[in-house]
């Protein structure tokens, strides 16, 4: 009797581990901006009220407040959505799904677009604004090597090795082999 098939999972290449670390630090920088913006939301909303009032003068105070609130929470929500989608793409890639690395390219582009749009609303004046810009810059600079690492040949080889291991892990016995050796007491049917 043949021994039970044991699927050996190859170790994760260093480039993939390093790319995951860069991504993790990128997420931390992005979440730091979101938390900082959330904690200082009152000052952001006050500043946004003046921006909205300048863009559409003559609007009622309730309309200006509502518009400022929508702009603030919409910007924060868009950035959070991009971070969550990137985290999902990283999780999918970590489970050795190669197609997810192509998903990461438009996600990075979407992240840049969200940052450009949100910068008009979430970057305060003064030193606090410089910190937000530095954290966003760090987020992008850390995300880039993380994205590059998933395209390194060893990352693709890791995925292919796992796929070939899973195919080789189960013994290939045909139905005819089982019947011919007397292993199957089940009669052959048309669908077998």
Please trace the helix and strand order, writing H or E for each element: HHHHHHH
What global shape is seen?
Answer: elongated
Strand content: under 5%
Largest sheet: none
Uncertain residue ranges: 161-186
Quick synopsis:
With about 190 residues, the chain is mainly alpha-helical. It contains 7 helices and no strands. The longest helix is centred in the middle third of the chain and has 34 residues, at about 60-95.
Detailed description of the structure:
With 192 residues, the chain is mostly helical. Helix content is 75%, strand content 0%. Helix 1 runs antiparallel to helix 3 (61-94), helix 3 packs antiparallel against helix 4 (100-122) and helix 4 (100-122) runs antiparallel to helix 5 (127-149). It is elongated and about 85 Å long.
Lay out the secondary structure:
Blueprint: H1 14-39, H2 41-55, H3 61-94, H4 100-122, H5 127-149, H6 153-169, H7 175-180
Features:
single chain; 192 residues; mainly alpha; 0% strand; elongated
